[in-house]
## 1
Amino acid sequence: MDGAKIPHKMLSQDAYSTWLGIEILDSKIGYVKVGMTVRKEMLNSMGFAHGGITYSLADTAFGFTANTHGKYAVSIETSINHIEALVEGDYITAEATVDHQKTKVGFNIVEVKRDNELVALFKGVVYRTAKDWEEKD
């Protein structure tokens, strides 16, 4: 299966990312950019976006990017640094800026931005299985 199409297939089967309102803005092998709008039900008790919102967006970009290489890839370690608070109505994007693949593991850095402002920095490691993505998956 064409690696650039895999994120679209993944999103079509991902109820959580769909509920968040995540959209794919760009996709090619080794690169995915996604975006979403912060909604009221995503805010914490202080009126800011829950940290899980930026984490979820970055994790989706990470997972989609890791899978563009054609093998099922699953997360084995992730971390995030929250840099700026977000509020209702903010449109944020997550872009895999580093994609380094080895035989069985892959390493990704994902930048989460509001416009051009960095709001979170995510790092992830995936394990690449032997299973190929196929059209019928």
Note: The longest helix spans residues 51-67.
## 2
Amino acid sequence: MNADAIQSLRKSLGLSQRELAEALAVDVALVRDWESGEQFATKAHCEAMEKFREHPPPKRARKAKTPMQTLGDPDFWRLARKLLANPPLRAACEKLAAEYDDPLDKDASG
């Protein structure tokens, strides 16, 4: 299994390099080396990865972002710009937001 095949398989399974490394019980640096062509996966590792095609390893739950992490995320601001710049989307968001308490409103937090 060459570097491109390993990366392609990993991406088709929706796994990060770290998740693949954990599933194979190897260091993430080794997976990086495989994908960059610096090292070659052993026959046993290749066979294990091939088995993932039919029986993917379970994905671990990702931690939810904190509010401050969300505010620092460029994708969040890209979404906000799109919502605010499009009048129908903005109106729909305002209508939806009216159903929820403002987290900064002291009366809503008790």
Note: The radius of gyration is 22 Å.
## 3
Amino acid sequence: MHEFSIAEAIVHAAQEVAQAHGGGKVEAVRLRIGELRQVVPEALLFAFDVLKQETPLAEASLQWENVPARVRCRECHTEYHPEDVFWECPACGAFGGEVLAGEELEIIGVTLWGGTHGD
């Protein structure tokens, strides 16, 4: 389950932010997760809860914003949300396209007890 490696990177990055700002405790970590990343929220939350123990994140919450997939057709340049794994353009029927959104996996903020710090 790749959620454990993602959670491990989140915990590590948030610890670095806390250390850079005096070594305090982390209250929350905010993420943007693209639909195409296929992250299972419950698995990520479970992994985060396991890995944060005995760290400055021990009491931290994990919050995220889902980013819908958005694709641009290579043939007619129509932008659309893919409805299935084949990415068929609703305008011209061409398959595939350029990903415009939905592959994000980023920390957008770390809230420390007593303040907020973006990352």
Note: Strands lie at 26-34, 61-67, 70-72, 79-80, 98-101, 105-112, 115-117.
